[in-house]
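Quarterly update from the structural biology core.
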Amino acid sequence: MQLLETIQICYGQFQNIEYHNKRFNISRLELFGLDVLQTLENLIKIPSECSEGIFRCRVVSEKEIQEVTFTPYIYKEMKTLKLVEIGDWDYSHKYADRSFMNNLLTENKEFDEVIMTQNGFITDCTIANLAFRDGSNWLTPSTPLLKGTKRQQLIDRQTIIVTQIRIEDLGKYEGVCLINAFRELSLKSLIPITAIIQ
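Predicted structure, tokenized:
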């Protein structure tokens, strides 16, 4: 069972690394019974070619790190989102096997992204957690498939509020922002709620 961490490298520096370390160590404990804390910045050497610009550091691990790759980050603009019910599929740890989500995207390729729902509740899209704007506040679903590092940082800073969001609640919001290690929370990135297709 392989795990995945995707870390932003900005001008040669790890971003938000303490949150990646926390998730990495929690998964190691819960899945493999390993209780020795490790810090990814001590296990990974950032190559000199990553000293300019933004790179995606992809870390695949089991009990030990199996593979580390660095690729330039390319931002993809999202304009259309499709709601898809996924039943009881579980992604409570960031597994390297993303075939389920890749299949969802393939089945809905006329849309830029898929928002997954479970039993009428909003969870995540395939690449990010979600933050909805109600006009004055940012709210994130209390039912995420994966508790992302950026989401947790924003919760800790009290920038976003955790709440239940059902499909029928979407009309209360003006838009949604995709948040992950590379996507910041901002009004500039707000996708109109009308772009979500049910």
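The domain at 81-197 is CATH 3.20.10.10 (D-amino Acid Aminotransferase; Chain A, domain 2).
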